Amino acid sequence: MGANIVNQVCEFLRPHIEECTGESVTMCILSNLVDTKLTFAEVRLTDIDGDLAERIQEASFFGEEDPYRAATSNKGVLNGIDAVVVATGNDWRAVEAGVHAYAARDGRYRSITRWRVDGRHLVGKLEAPLVVGTVGGVTKLHPTASMCLRMLGVASANELSRVAAAVGLVQNLGALRALTTVGIIEGHMKLHARNLSLGAGARLEEVPALQRRLEEILRIRKRISHSNAVELLQEMRSAAPGA
User: Fold this and answer.
1) Residue 188 CA, distance from chain mean position
2) I want to staple 168 with a disulfide (CB 3.0 to 4.6 A). Which of 11, 12, 25, 80 is the partner?
3) Domain map of the chain by residue range?
């Protein structure tokens, strides 16, 4: 993202600024709030269920006005953005700092996304400073970061920032859809089922079957635990041929 270059320029200018102003420069450092370089993403969903669209719009209003809801909403957006930023060797902490600062630019912390019903459409928009880079640093040195950039097919930092914004916006849509329908726990627990499988000691080839059985318990009981995973794994191994 060019942070070191900007800092070098600041330090180079220090004596010139002191000479011109007669003042003493205390610090030479960039700001991670780059509100002059914003990234936008928009998605338009057609023929979405009207009731669901209204629910998502209402949830959006909540995040736009209530800072407690906005904090969690933006965290969910950043779940998507951070994944892209980390995978491509960029500084996720700098991106998050800039996003949070921008979200509070008018003195009240708000969601960086908004969803509106527009006739038969549900329109989602994201606006935030997503400053990333594709040249230099870890993006070129780390083989995984280089591979991820090639997989994305991006040719510039601007394109990468747009990809990150799009992922964050769609991540937000998934979270709002879950929150306004079945609730967030069901999705979280499905993801948790794999972790429970591994935590119970399942071998990689055993994980898919154990995960499916845990999800069956989740549908019935609405919760699963480590003990469920251990008991099911023991049953599976006992029933296996040659056990």
Assistant:
1) 15
2) 80
3) 1-30, 33-181, 187-239
Q: What is the pLDDT of residue 135?
A: 86
Q: Which two tokens stand for residue 226?
A: 């480590």
Q: Cα torsion at 136, 127, 110, 123 (round to 10°)?
A: -140
Show Cβ contacts of residue 145 under 8 Å, excluding neighbours closer than 6 positions.
87, 88, 89, 138, 139
| Structure-block tokens of residue 54 | 């209204």
Q: What is the pLDDT of residues 147-200, one digit of tens each?
A: 999 999 998 999 999 999 999 999 999 999 989 987 766 666 767 888 899 899
Helix residue spans in 22-156 (DSSP H): 50-65, 67-87, 92-103, 138-141, 143-152
Q: Which fold has domain 187-239?
A: Helicase, Ruva Protein; domain 3 (1.10.8)
Fold of the domain built from segment(s) 33-181: 3.90.770
- Give the model confidence (pLDDT) of 62-82 as tens digits: 999 999 999 999 999 999 999
Taking alpha carbons only, the member of 212, 201, 86 closest to residue 142 is 86
What tokens were used for 70?
Answer: 């906005």
| The two three-digit tokens of residue 113, written as one number | 């996304």
Long-range contacts of 206-211 (CB under 8 A, 24+ apart): 206/233, 206/236, 206/237, 209/236, 210/236
> Do β-strands 39-46 and 121-128 pair in parallel, antiparallel, or remain unpaired?
antiparallel
